[in-house]
Write a structure and sequence with these properties.
272 residues, alpha+beta, 2 domains, 7 helices, 19% strand
């Protein structure tokens, strides 16, 4: 669920997580994204009017007034809700920004569509945009056991770390699919990346593999295979695909994910 549209009640949790973990560049991008969306939306106002002794709600756009139960009124009310949610989200992120920085968010960290592609069977190129993200089935991997004590928001995760990652992405307002079925070039059957994220500010997707492996040999083998598969399909580690780990020598820390995500988003903004 997202910060504004799916979970308005989670506003305080977003603020808490953002204060603790959201890096500056990604925060600036989110602020500029909200501002750019708001600039394109009309300013609307909902009010009550009395007609024949009855109160009716209407929405005002410029010099025009529409009842909320009219087709145009319903259309404008949807826009009104989007605008309210964006304003709420912007207020949260600006509060976080101004608590840490004395200057305004850099304007060059602006939202724009980035074309990143994945090579699938037949060497076909698939653009990693919202259409691709929406085509993926959530929680599609039934090859391995899941545990009832790692539950969050309708999904049973395979570890506490994966559940914490899902909570982090939810609090950050980042849509994701957990273990979707993905076809990539050079692999004879679909793979199930732990997470596929949709970065709405750039209209692009990120893959995230979390390797919770304690054995050094298993860790090296699995990392090598996954690196090879993803890079062979045209994904750039650190930009298109994130790797996080939980090993004996390097326990998983959500702050590490925040840093990696920020780096991936920032490097994507520099892509042509």
């Amino acid at each position: 669920m997202s910060v504004v549209s799916d979970n308005p009640a989670g506003h305080n949790q977003v603020m808490k997580t953002a204060f603790n973990y959201i890096p500056g560049e990604y925060l600036a991008l989110k602020i500029n994204y909200c501002k750019s969306r708001l600039e394109k939306l009309p300013k609307l106002r909902v009010t009550d009017i009395v007609i024949s002794g009855k109160i009716r709600k209407c929405i005002i756009s410029g010099h025009h007034r529409y009842f909320l139960d009219s087709p145009r009124g319903k259309e404008l009310y949807d826009i009104f809700i989007i605008r309210e949610n964006l304003e709420r989200e912007l207020a949260v992120y600006e509060a976080v920004w101004h608590s840490s920085f004395a200057f305004e968010p850099p304007a060059d960290l602006r939202p724009h569509n980035v074309i990143r592609s994945l090579t699938v069977e037949g060497n076909k190129q698939v653009v990693l945009n919202k259409e691709y993200f929406d085509s993926l089935q959530n929680d599609a991997n039934d090859n391995y056991k899941k545990y009832s004590n790692y539950y969050f928001d309708g999904i049973y995760y395979r570890s506490s770390n994966e559940r914490d990652i899902a909570i982090y992405y939810t609090d950050m307002g980042i849509p994701f699919k957990y273990e979707p079925k993905v076809w990539i070039a050079g692999v004879p059957k679909p793979i199930n990346p732990d997470f596929v994220l949709y970065i709405k500010e750039l209209d692009t997707c990120k893959f995230h593999e979390h390797l919770g492996i304690k054995s050094s040999a298993d860790y090296l083998r699995d990392t090598r295979i996954k690196y090879s598969n993803y890079t062979g399909a045209g994904l750039i580690p650190g930009t298109d695909i994130l790797f996080t780990y939980d090993t004996d020598d390097m326990p998983f820390d959500i702050r590490c994910l925040a840093a990696k995500l920020n780096s991936a988003v920032y490097s994507t903004m520099l892509c042509k």
